[in-house]
Write a structure and sequence with these properties.
The chain is α/β, with parallel strands linked by helices. It has a single domain (about 5-10, about 55-345), classed as 3-Layer(aba) Sandwich (Rossmann fold). Helix content is about 45%, strand content about 10%. It has 14 helices and seven strands. It has a seven-stranded parallel β-sheet, sandwiched between helices. The longest helix has 24 residues, at about 150-170. The radius of gyration is 21 Å and the shape is globular. It starts with 13 loop residues before the first helix and ends in a 5-residue tail after the last helix. About 55% of the residues are buried.
Amino acid sequence: MNKWIFDAAKSIDVTATKLAQAHQAILTKPPGSLGRLEILAEKFAGWQSKQHPILEQLHIGVFAADHGICKQNVSAFPQEVTVQMIANFLEGGAAISVLSQQIGASLTVCNLGTVAALPEKYEGHPQLIEANIAKESADFSMQEAMTDEQLQKALMAGRELVAEKVIDLQECSIPPTPSLHLFIGGEMGIGNTSSASAIYAAQLGLAAEEVVGPGTGIDQIGLLRKQSVINAALKLHVDYLADPYQTLRCVGGFEIAALVGSYIYCAQIGVPVLVDGFICTAAALIAVKLNASVGDWLLFSHRSAEPAHHLALEALSANVLLDLELRLGEGSGAALAVPLLQSALALHNNMATFEQAGVSAG
C-alpha cells in the first residue's frame, strides 16, 4: 500500500485567516453582507498564508480510463467514446477544453488505459500524459476492479500529475512562488458512474437503488439493469467494503483512483482543490475516508443532477457553490465555479475600507 496517502495535510494558517476576517470587517459593506464570498476569501487567506490571497495559477487535470463493468451494458455510450473524448480534449473541442481557456487554466489529460488505441498523431502531445496501467479495469461485478499494484500505480499517477505541474510553475517563476493556487480534477471513462455509484453505496451504507442515476442517459430498463449489476457487485465484495482503500480497489476505476491520489497530494503540499460533480465527489469521499485531514483543502463546486450526489455532499458536510443541474463531468462544473472564487478574492482585495472611502462605519 502507498503509505504516503496517510501523511497529514499541510496545516492551514490560522493567523492569516484571522487577518482576512479582520480585513473583511472594515470594508465598506455591512458585516456578512457578502455571505459565503467572505468565507471563501478567508479560506484562501488561510491556504496561502496571505491576508490578501490571489487566484492566478490554476490547473485542470483530466484523468481518463476504461471500465470492465461496461461488459454488463451499463452505459448508453459505447466504450470507444473514452478514447475519442481524450482526442477531443487534446483538440480543444470538449466542454472542459473551452472552459479551461475561458478561465485561464492550464489543462492536462492523463490516459490511464483505454480499450481502443489513441491515434498515433497524439503521441508526444504537450497536454497528454501516458500513464497506461491496463486497457481497462476488470469487471467489478465478477471480480475486483484492480489489483493492489494497479491501484497503487493509479494513486501515484494522480500525485505525479500534480507534482509535475507544481515543478513546472516553480521553474518558470523568479523567485520561486508557492506555485499552484487551485487544482481541479476532471474525469472521463465510459462506465464510471457505475463505479462511483458502487463507491457511494459501499461508503454510505446504501443500496444501489438509492445511488444509481441515469449517468450518460440510460433508459428505465437500463437503469434497473445497472442497479441489479451494482447490487450483485456489492454482495460479491461485501467483506471488503468497510475499508475505503479496498472499496476503491474492488469497485473503483483507474481514473477515480488517480483523482484520489491527486486530492490527497494537493492537500499535503497545500494546494486547495475544487471538486467537480458525481464522479469526483466519489473520489473526494474516498480521499477523506482514507485521510481525514484532506477535507480541509476541498471546496465543492456544484450539486450534480445525479440523484445521489447530495448524499455524499451531506456526508462530507459540503456546501456547494452552484446548482445548475449539470451531469457532464470532465471537471466542467468546477471550471464554471472559478469566476465566483475570483470575484470573492477581488472583492476582498480591492474594496475600499471605511477609512479609505470616508464612509462612516456602523
